[in-house]
Design goal:
The complex is a heterodimer. Chain A is mainly alpha-helical. Chain A has helices at about 30-35, 45-50, 55-70, 75-90, 95-110, 110-120, 130-140, 150-155, 160-185; strands spanning about 15, 185-190. Helix content of chain B is about 65%, strand content about 0%. Classes of the chains: A mainly alpha, B mainly alpha.
């Protein structure tokens, strides 16, 4: 039995599926197209092979994910990662939290914010702007969603534009989706190829 | 479909000509892709073990768990004789494991463990259907939160 990770970390774990992923050799044409398998690209993760069981959803979700996280304009990429991280911490998706904390640290070239968040959770010492962003993402991710007018006021007082606020709503909500795939369908385990 | 006709924007009370509408128009592609995702999880060509009326009932149930009555009513219209399942707490002997799983993934996400998946498998749900079910609930988690956020944004807009 592999070691399942239960604590937040920036070191990205391996994802071990709880269901049997689609076998590449048995994939349909529609699945191969969604997986973007080509003769020069035959490496597909277990996560994507698992999602290929529902190929119609996978095909529409990948471009939507990329648009919400990477399209130009609006909120900075690092702040969208903070929105993703807030949701992932509420849902305790260790894998998603690791990936997006790591991206945040890389984009900011600074680990302070994510160190604080993993150490102190919602009591982390953050700048007013990061505090407003994280609190909105965190409360929006509660079930049922719990962000209120005071959280929106805090975002505006911290100087966020409507375009930035919309991107935050989208990135944190997107992880309400991603967490319910990653955290539900598999376990985060220690990578075999690293110490 | 125009972005203001998508389920999200049509149900979030965004007023045309408002600052919120301007921000939404700059992300029109995202609202259109979100609508395509709704189509894929609610009305897929290959619906597996979950026919479209059952999917609509489950979507309405998840919308109610997120306290979005208007969105629940929108889905309920397509639930046919499965509509009774949209009421959180409603049970059905054939679907007991599925309904328990849907409720837990929707509102107790952090508590999900490997045994939740094993329970569904033991009840005879195939792995492909487990993934389909997760996508349905997970999409609803996204859609309800975007709508809730936009309503909040519009209600507090100067």
């Amino acid at each position: 039995m592999s070691h399942v990770i239960h604590k937040f970390t920036r070191k990205v774990p391996q994802w071990q599926p709880r269901v049997t992923p689609v076998k590449l050799a048995e994939a349909t044409d529609e699945q191969l197209e969604a997986l973007q398998v080509t003769p020069s690209n035959t490496k597909v993760s277990d996560y994507v092979l698992t999602l290929a069981h529902d190929v119609e959803s996978l095909s529409v979700r990948s471009p939507l994910f990329n648009a919400i996280m990477y399209d130009p304009g609006g909120m900075s990429r690092a702040e969208r990662e903070l929105g993703a991280l807030g949701a992932s911490m509420v849902n305790r998706c260790i894998f998603c939290a690791a990936v997006h904390a790591d991206r945040h640290a890389q984009l900011e070239k600074d680990t302070r914010v994510t160190d604080e968040l993993f150490d102190k959770g919602e009591n982390a010492d953050l700048s007013p702007r990061d505090r407003a962003i994280f609190d909105f993402a965190r409360k929006s991710a509660e079930a049922p969603p719990a962000a209120g007018p005071e959280d929106m006021d805090a975002l505006r007082k911290a100087g966020l534009t409507d375009a930035e606020i919309l991107d935050l709503i989208l990135s944190s909500a997107l992880f309400g989706w991603a967490n319910r795939l990653m955290h539900v369908l598999g376990d985060p385990v220690r990578r075999k190829d690293t110490s | 479909m125009k972005h203001f006709e998508t389920t999200i924007l049509a149900r979030s009370g965004v007023i045309s000509d408002s600052n919120v509408a301007t921000a939404a128009t700059a992300r029109a592609n995202i609202f259109e892709m979100s609508q395509a995702a709704e189509q894929a999880v609610l009305r897929p060509k290959d619906s597996g073990a979950f026919a479209h009326d059952l999917r609509a009932a489950l979507a309405a149930r998840v919308a109610r768990l997120a306290e979005d009555g208007a969105l629940a009513a929108y889905y309920l219209a397509d639930a046919g004789d499965k509509a009774g399942l949209a009421e959180p707490g409603a049970s059905d002997t054939d679907l007991d494991a599925v309904l328990t799983f849907v409720d837990r993934v929707a509102n107790q996400t952090r508590d999900i463990v490997a045994d939740d998946i094993k329970g569904l498998q033991a009840a005879g749900t195939s792995d492909a259907d487990i993934v389909r079910l997760c996508e349905l609930v997970a999409f609803l988690a996204y859609q309800t939160r975007v709508i809730a956020g936009l309503r909040l944004m519009q209600d507090t807009s100067a």
